[in-house]
Amino acid sequence: MTAQAPLPANSELLTAVVVQATSTGGDAITTGFGEAVEIALTIPASLLPTGAIGASELVVAYRDGDAWVDLDASVTFEADGSVTLTVSVDHFTLFGVQRRPGLRAFAQPLARTGVTAALWGGGSLNDALAAAGPGVDSLWVVKTGRFVGYRPGAPAFVNAALVALFPNERLPAGTIVFVVRR
Known about the structure:
Immunoglobulin-like, 4-stranded antiparallel β-sheet, globular, 10% helix, mainly beta
């Protein structure tokens, strides 16, 4: 499957599933849900890599044309060693559970105060703010030679330029983020 749907760099596919539904008339139902549908994917302990694995390394993604699109998932480690990832979706398709070391983390430690240029491992804007830790004042990226910033708690118009750069407020792995901490 990974030949047809190549994974992002540094990713390991733990499992994949095609979610399908049909009407009583036999027609495929893939979109047009009245509300989001919750899907829980459980990975048995036998399919997990050996060694410690963190919730921040796991992601549920769906295939959209040439790319995998990450979804926000809640991760639960079960008593039997399995892991359950739960997502809300608005369509059915191919879903994969991937392990990406470095996901939702900066590649190097951040300065306690001041500015750090840091390589982002990928994830949502909220993940980046959480990874920046307490005292984060703002996050900045460079786009076409200019700095574009995000300031937590600021009015939406202040952050609109950065939000517009990243669909679904997801900062891809490999993005250089300037983290400003007080």
